[in-house]
Amino acid sequence: QRHYAISKATPIAMSFELFVTPNTDVRKSPLIIMHGLFGSKQNWRSVGRAIARETNRRVYTVDLRNHGESPHADVHNSAGMTADLSAFLTDNSISKACLMGHSMGGRAVMHFALYNAPLVDRLIVVDISPVSMPKTIGEMNTIMRGMLEVSLPSDMSLSVGRQKAKEILLKSIGRDSVDFIMLNLRKHPRTGEFYWACNVKVLRHSLNGFLDYGRNIHNKGPFLGPTSFICGKKSPYMDPNDWPEVLHFFPNASMNWLPTGHLVHLEKPKEFIKITTEFLNS
């Protein structure tokens, strides 16, 4: 993996995929989709393609820093991800964008919109609150500790390696989480070395920083553009009691609840795509 020592808000060039159709209207602001922790642009491919088709907008799915095919950096926080998004807009000559983010990506797009309102047309936040954080930091720490314990010999085949890694992770982590995390296991084509696509050490080190989010946005905003929250009823990541405070930051926001857990877009893709396309077309 490429690894740069990066100071507080030095941007990295995010890896991305662009979806267009023969009917794409380049005069419309494009949609940029940012995934959650341990995710990647791959998780959003079918959603991105569908939204591009239904809205006639360009749709970019990106890998956040320390994830997927994007460079690794020593800093992982909202300021860094905002710098990355600013650089992405500049590099792709985008003057104004619609933003969608899930979980960690949702916090990144909210942070960006509160700091850079003129660059944001519409905002979609998927299953995360700007106000409170569920008590899952300990759980994340357990997951990352498990990931760091996975050590596989380079002469082992990918299929056997996947099986072994899964067995190690299942000792301390639930099956749903393990299946999602396993999408990150890679094997170097030349050396045969196994590695995680996401930068586990830096992500683990930055976990406590997630708790500082409120302090970083408390005197920012509001963002007055159209905003849509899409959240899972069975997920702990959006407390309904936060809503009055959410409206303080995003007074033009609406809330959509779906009968899902945290991975709203994967559990109810049809309903999710319908809500997002109607919002982007309204």
From TrEMBL:
State the InterPro entries in the record: AB_hydrolase_1, AB_hydrolase_fold
UniProt cross-references to SUPFAM superfamilies, sorted A to Z: alpha/beta-Hydrolases
Q: Which reaction does it catalyse?
A: 1-octadecanoyl-2-(4Z,7Z,10Z,13Z,16Z,19Z-docosahexaenoyl)-sn-glycerol + H2O = 2-(4Z,7Z,10Z,13Z,16Z,19Z-docosahexaenoyl)-glycerol + octadecanoate + H(+); 1-octadecanoyl-2-(5Z,8Z,11Z,14Z-eicosatetraenoyl)-sn-glycerol + H2O = 2-(5Z,8Z,11Z,14Z-eicosatetraenoyl)-glycerol + octadecanoate + H(+); 1-octadecanoyl-2-(9Z-octadecenoyl)-sn-glycerol + H2O = 2-(9Z-octadecenoyl)-glycerol + octadecanoate + H(+); 1,2-didecanoylglycerol + H2O = decanoylglycerol + decanoate + H(+)
Q: What EC number(s) would the UniProt record show?
A: 3.1.1.116
Gene Ontology CC: one annotated term: mitochondrion
Single GO term (MF): carboxylic ester hydrolase activity
**Keywords assigned:** Hydrolase
**One Pfam family, short name:** Abhydrolase_1
Q: What class of enzyme is it?
A: hydrolase
- Give the residues annotated as coiled coil: none
Occurrences of domain AB hydrolase-1 (ranges): 30-269
Provide the family line.
Belongs to the AB hydrolase superfamily.
Name the UniProt record assigns to this protein: sn-1-specific diacylglycerol lipase ABHD11
- Source organism per entry reads Drosophila rubida
